[in-house]
Design brief:
The protein is an alpha+beta fold and 153 residues long. It folds into two domains: 4-75, no CATH class; 87-150, OB fold (Dihydrolipoamide Acetyltransferase, E2P). It is 45% helix and 20% strand. The chain is built from four helices and five strands, in the order H-H-H-H-E-E-E-E-E. 23% of the residues are buried.
Length: 153
């Protein structure tokens, strides 16, 4: 029985590492590494079943914690919150053009290839604008300071 367990850990390591290829996360590879470490230590030291389970748990926790810091460094996340799926934050400071005359402080502006609902001062169609803020799906705009800035950006 003790000769079979190291091979079982090695097979578990292989299966879990292949599962990593088809799962949407990064942590299964670290579980596979923990199973591989457990298999290696069981081959070398002939660990009992209880010692194998304790070794696997310690190795899995250690590998996942190490993996967290490794991926954090590789992905370049350094305390900054990425703007992924936060289009509203990306819009602040963008330049565009009023698509229609603003009435009662409301109208539409073109930012890039998209037309947005907007609020701002009285604007004429074609006036250059820049985004000051975003509230829900409405951009808050103001007039561009100079004629040179009227080009959409």
């Amino acid at each position: 029985m003790s000769n079979v367990l190291p091979w079982a850990w090695a097979i578990i390591a292989l299966v879990v590492s292949f599962l990593e290829l088809y799962s949407p996360g990064y942590y299964l590879i670290w579980i596979a590494c923990a199973a591989a470490v457990t298999a290696a230590l069981t081959f070398i030291l002939g660990l009992s079943i209880n010692a194998q389970l304790i070794t696997f748990i310690i190795a899995a926790v250690g590998a996942c914690v190490a993996g967290h810091f490794i991926y954090r460094r590789l992905l370049g996340v350094s305390g900054q919150i990425p703007l992924l799926n936060q289009r509203d934050v990306e819009l602040i400071g963008k330049k565009g053009v009023a698509c229609e005359d603003f009435q009662f402080g409301q109208g539409k502006v073109r930012l890039g290839d998209t037309v947005w609902l907007a609020e701002g001062p009285a604007l004429r169609k074609g006036a250059g604008v820049f985004v000051k803020a975003v509230r829900g799906t409405v951009v808050i705009v103001d007039v561009l300071a100079s004629v040179a800035d009227d080009r959409p950006g």
